[in-house]
Amino acid sequence: MSFTPIGDLRQKITIASLKEKKLRREPITCLTAYDYSAARLVDEAQIDVVLVGDSLAQTMLGYENTLSVTIEEMLHHVRAVRRGIKHALLLADMPYGSYHLGSDEAVRNAARFVKEAGAEVVKIEGGEKRADLIRRIIDAEIPVAGHIGLTPQSVNVMGGYRVQGKSLNAIEQLMKDAVALDRAGVACLYLEGIPREVASMITAEVETPTIGIGAGPDCDGQVLVFHDLVNLSFSPPAKFVRHYGDAAAEITRAVQSFRTDVASRQYPSDSESYHLPRETQTALETLLERKRGMRR
Ligand code: KIV
Q1: pLDDT at 10
Q2: Cα–Cα 20 to 30 A to 25, which of 177, 199, 207, 261?
């Protein structure tokens, strides 16, 4: 039995597809999306993985960092993205505080992402110290993505958003983190803000696919934040960001043109207006004429 609608030849991406891509050395593509319209565009552009990142705290909600976003806010966005996706694998970030207070609560929260919002994989930040927790969540039949290197939920511990893994000790720790998460069975491993050389070593060492952001070209795949891709982030871009479009300029141009056209009565035109049917128009004119006659 096939679950793919007739005429729709694209295959559903699963965690097995990511592993196959790594084996075939085919780069994995991943973008964040936070709402229905972006999710549709990203999915229709055949991106493999859509990540509802907790970066939505900044890009969508205007928070200063990712620490304040709540599980309810994340679930709201994951549901919207779920409705926009047909083929891509849907990953969701577990927000800060949703997996730090004990493994029972973490498993319960992970299950909410699957049951209430349709996530296929949940992502958790942190290295070897998260390995046992990750095993517990996987035991509950929920695939988990790891995330090491520059982990934004640790911003206060790191003392800012700094590239990680620059000293020999730090490289050793990152390798231990990667291997521990690989052994725990993560579906894939996000590598953020680490030197290319280190990301390359990790990618060669682990069986799980690595997906890099600010980690150089040797990872098994690449992810960017959607708002960075199209210049909607309102902040100076990081070194690794490439703007593939300028949505800010395009939206500003459209909004300013609308304002000018309304102010000068050029919008809406007659052809952009609804009109009465001819009979109703004739009947209305007759009625108005009769009323005017009675007033005379
Ligand atoms: O929240 C996010 O967008 C992420 C990516 C940067 C990997 O975690």
Answers
A1: 85
A2: 177
